[in-house]
Amino acid sequence: MSDWFRQAADGRITLTLHIQPGAKKTQFAGLHGDALKIRLAAPPVDGKANEALIKFVAETLKLPKSAVTLKSGQTSRRKVLEVQGATPSSVEAFGTAV
Predict the structure, then answer these.
(1) Per DSSP, what are the bridge partners of residue 20?
(2) What does 31-48 look like in DSSP terms, one character per residue?
(3) pTM value?
(4) CA angle at residue 93 from 88 to 98, to 5 degrees?
(5) DSSP labels for 79-92?
(6) Which domains does the chain have, with CATH numbers?
(7) pLDDT tens digit string along 13-64?
(8) Apex 3 CA angle, 75 and 92, nearest 5
(9) C-alpha to C-alpha distance for 43 and 69, rounded to whole angstroms
(10) Which of 3, 9, 10, 39 has the most beta carbons within 10 angstroms of its beta carbon?
(11) C-alpha 22, offset from chain centre
(12) 41-56 per-residue burial string, b: 16 or more CB within 10 A, e: under 16
């Protein structure tokens, strides 16, 4: 498994992400230390970047938005998301979509 995601015993997967808000388009940008870097087109105001991130991750993993929860980093570029209903192989593919 990669450093940027972990699977808990209950099946939930935790993602460690580095976010670059205000980019030209939303896309993966490779690894940033122990985190997966994602560029977001949304601005970092009023929670728009967090909403865009959750939507992007959910759509990429083909899950409902309710399956993705922001656990930490509400106002930081470093964020931790919790994902329910995804398999480690789908998350690994998610990270290699760079």
Answers:
(1) 39
(2) EETTEEEEE-SS-SSTTH
(3) 0.93
(4) 140
(5) EEEEESS--HHHHH
(6) 5-95 (3.30.1200.10)
(7) 999 999 999 999 999 999 999 999 999 999 999 999 999 999 999 999 999 9
(8) 95
(9) 19
(10) 39
(11) 16
(12) ebebeeeebbebbbeb
